[in-house]
Amino acid sequence: MSDRLQKVIAHAGVASRRKAEKLIAAGHVKVNGQVVKELGTKVSSTDEVKVDEVPIAKEPPVYYLLYKPRGVITAVTDDKHRKTVVDILEEVPERIYPVGRLDYDTSGLLILTNDGDLDNQLTHPKYEVEKTYVAKVKGIVTNDDLKRLRTGVMVDGRKTSKAKTNLIRTNRESSIVSLTIHEGRNHQVKKMFESIAHPVEKLSRETYGFLTLRGLQPGEYRRLKPHEVEELKELSEKVKR
């Protein structure tokens, strides 16, 4: 039995499927001693696959939920030597990577895994997993502002999908707003609030699908329970259909 090279690399926990494709195209991958750049290449269990000269090995899939603190990079490594989310989980022996990303100055719920298939399903735009953010924004948010967010605003030339909103509280200078979206465009939440003239001062992702931060403090993490992993897979399949 054979599988596509990028799938084998992802299943080994080296990188996500899309990152694996970039590694292949850039010439970082060898099969049986030969550099392979063709994405459709099939390999079997008897083939030797190396990424940057390091042989890959199939790892058991693992799944973690991290309460990402502010001031931490959502990446495996950082060329500026800043702390990454993987550094926080340094005691985890498997080669895990984050599912999606949160900005450097954004805190909240982040999943890390070595399951390339699940990563692909959860981060691909068509799967539409709901995520709830709580934002502290400048100024007093009005009902008209919330209505604009709910019906969609223009971000990078495209209108956002319908969102769910809740005004938690306001004072003279700022407002706390809950925003639930299922898209994942770059800096989307910040840009949505900028479009209604209420720039974000502080942002946290509070939920991801059915998962919450309950019981965790910033910088803490836990292993997902088997039933949570199954629910995530069912959620992505349900949305896929």
From TrEMBL:
GO terms for molecular function: RNA binding; rRNA pseudouridine synthase activity. GO terms for biological process: enzyme-directed rRNA pseudouridine synthesis. It holds the Pfam family S4. SUPFAM superfamilies: Alpha-L RNA-binding motif (SSF55174), Pseudouridine synthase (SSF55120). Its EC number is 5.4.99.-. Keywords: Isomerase, RNA-binding. It comes from the Bacteria. The keyword RNA-binding applies. Belongs to the pseudouridine synthase RsuA family. NCBIfam families: pseudouridine synthase (TIGR00093). This is Pseudouridine synthase. It comes from Lentilactobacillus diolivorans DSM 14421.
